[in-house]
Design goal:
By secondary structure, the protein is an alpha+beta fold. It is built from 18 helices and 11 strands. The protein has 2 domains: about 180 residues, 3-Layer(aba) Sandwich (D-Maltodextrin-Binding Protein, domain 2); about 180 residues, Periplasmic binding protein-like II (D-Maltodextrin-Binding Protein, domain 2). This is Carbohydrate ABC transporter substrate-binding protein.
Length: about 375
């Protein structure tokens, strides 16, 4: 029996479906022993991808790591493993940029197992009138209640900055890959975030998205988080109040919901010799059967567009997918050059300190641009 060493992240959404799929009779009959290990999500943000690929055959990654992975020559492209026609078909079946986010240096580097993006989370029983559609309405609710929380811990401060800039019509580093954001748009975004941060309940200031959503389910002092990575299990929790998920806020009603793509993909390391049986298993994880039935039934979040609009899936999860599909279809894809991950961490720390110190926008934006330029030297977007 062929032993396949695999690594994913330590959360039911990241582990349960993969582990259960590896135990299927068909997989065992095919002679595969797929052993899934797990590490904290933060480990993927800090641990060198080349080291993980040296120890594992399959590695679940986030798309901003692909530049680092290509620089380290540690992953096999999907085209080399499955062929260009299969990859093209996967792209047509995946929601939003779930597959294309793994495209770098002319090839794709991970299978889009899990699709996610920042969306709005609210306690519908506490928010009168439903989810606010615009950032102006979010700010008004924050001023009136003091119960609107920003997700600022870890990398999330700068991810929210990028998302709001996209909502205001300037997806960062797209028009000019050397410029993160213009001073005009950057000032609007920074000042909006600074006001919301000053009013955000401090009880969740240091919590990651899982911590914030868990807090919202258990307590009534946070009624809304305008940008947070969606976790479907909180829409129908085993304990506590359900959290309702809606499209991310827009600059104006009917405009683009500004959101930065998340999700995870399965990368195949250079140490792996993918057999026909392993390739068939990996493609089964992308199939209609797995994505609509198996993965949602085992705490996973599918990437296949059909699953996001499936009536049964949405009924089980209180409309989570259909209510946020527009946001993920329009999600902003971060830069993926080698060096971006370090920028993301340092930029978020800079923003948190700036909000606390009530620093002037011009100074903070100049520092953000300097950080971005310095970390782009680690590798060029291709």
């Amino acid at each position: 029996m062929a032993t396949i060493k695999a690594l994913t992240w330590d959360h039911p959404r990241g582990f349960n479906a993969l582990a259960a799929a590896a135990r299927r009779d068909e997989v065992i009959a095919a002679g595969l022993d797929i052993q899934w290990d797990k590490q904290p999500l933060e480990g993927f943000e800090s641990h060198p991808i080349a080291d993980l690929c040296a120890r594992y055959d399959l590695v679940v990654i986030d798309h901003p790591h692909v530049g680092e992975a290509v620089s380290g020559d540690c992953l096999q492209s999907l085209e080399s493993v499955f062929g260009a026609d299969v990859v093209e078909a996967l792209g047509a079946e995946s929601i939003g940029p779930s597959l294309s986010s793994y495209h770098y240096a002319g090839k794709h580097w991970a299978l889009p197992l899990d699709a996610a993006t920042q969306v709005m989370a609210l306690r519908a029983d506490l928010v009168d009138g439903g989810a606010p559609e615009t950032w102006a309405a979010v700010a008004d609710l924050s001023r009136r209640t003091g119960k609107v929380a920003l997700s600022l811990a870890g990398p999330h401060a700068v991810l929210s900055f990028l998302s709001i800039a996209a909502a205001y019509g300037e997806p960062p580093a797209e028009a000019d890959p050397d410029v993160l954001v213009s001073s005009e748009t950057g000032t609007i975004v920074y000042e909006l975030m600074a006001e919301l941060a000053s009013l955000s309940p401090r009880v969740v200031r240091d919590k990651n998205p899982i911590g914030i959503l868990g807090h919202m389910a258990a307590f009534d002092d946070v009624m809304l988080c305008p940008l947070i990575y969606g976790y479907v299990n909180y829409s129908a929790p085993d304990a506590g109040k359900p959290v309702t998920f809606a499209d991310a806020p827009r600059r104006v009603a009917g405009g683009r919901p500004g959101s930065t793509l998340g999700g995870t993909g399965i990368g195949i390391s250079k140490r792996c010799d993918p057999s026909p049986e392993l390739k068939a298993h990996l493609l089964w994880l992308m199939s209609r059967e797995a994505q609509i039935h198996f993965i949602p039934a085992h705490d996973g979040q599918p990437s296949r567009r059909e699953a996001w609009f499936d009536n049964g899936v949405n009924r089980r999860w209180n409309g989570f997918y259909r209510q946020t599909a527009e946001t993920i279809e329009a999600a902003y894809v971060r830069p993926r050059h080698d060096g971006y991950i370090a920028f993301q961490s340092r930029a978020s720390a800079l923003l948190r300190d700036a909000f606390e110190a009530k620093a002037a926008a011009a100074s903070v934006l100049a520092q953000l641009q300097d950080l971005y330029r310095a970390h782009r030297r680690g590798g060029e977007e291709r």
